[in-house]
Write a sequence for this structure.
């Protein structure tokens, strides 16, 4: 008969697990801890003066418009390239070129406003029929009809043949 073996007294003390403090809040695991930035805390950036910003924006827009005008002038017809006034359709130019002789006949030309007009072309001759809104001698804004016949000379100049205002 065998006796169950008595447990032998344990001679070693149980091993203790090393103590690890709780990680700081927001710690990133798998990366070494980062030190806080040296020096004083960063100051918030100052916002610029809105007036200076607005002026800078206007200057930049003006420069862009100037450059755009130069580019379009270079792309468009130059003075070296003659335009055949008979075949070229310059109806918009004719409408604009009629505005000066019409303004010359108004009491207050600086107040003139031109709604879109009807333009008919016959060779190099354009007939422009439309209205002009301008102040009369009493300061009241009135609408007056006009008819302008103008010739495209083909060299960038125009000749007014007839200009009449409805009275």
């Amino acid at each position: 008969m065998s006796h169950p073996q008595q447990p032998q007294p344990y001679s070693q003390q149980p091993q203790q697990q090393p103590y690890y403090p709780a990680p700081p809040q927001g710690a990133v695991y798998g990366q070494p801890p980062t030190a806080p930035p040296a020096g004083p805390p960063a100051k918030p950036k100052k916002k610029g003066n809105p007036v200076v910003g607005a002026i800078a924006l206007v200057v930049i827009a003006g420069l862009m418009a100037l450059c755009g005008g130069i580019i379009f002038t270079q792309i468009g017809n130059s003075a070296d390239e003659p335009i055949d006034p008979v075949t070229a359709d310059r109806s918009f130019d004719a409408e604009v070129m009629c505005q000066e002789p019409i303004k010359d006949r108004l009491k207050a030309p600086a107040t003139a406003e031109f709604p879109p007009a009807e333009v008919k072309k016959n060779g190099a001759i354009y007939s422009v029929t439309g209205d002009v809104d301008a102040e009369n001698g009493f300061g009241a804004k009135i609408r007056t009809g006009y008819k302008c016949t103008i010739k495209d000379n083909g060299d960038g100049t125009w000749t007014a043949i007839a200009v009449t205002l409805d009275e």
Q: What stands out?
A: Confidence is low (pLDDT under 50) at residues 70-76. The first strand starts at residue 118 and ends at 122. The chain has three helices and four strands. Residues 67 and 73 are 10 Å apart (CA to CA).
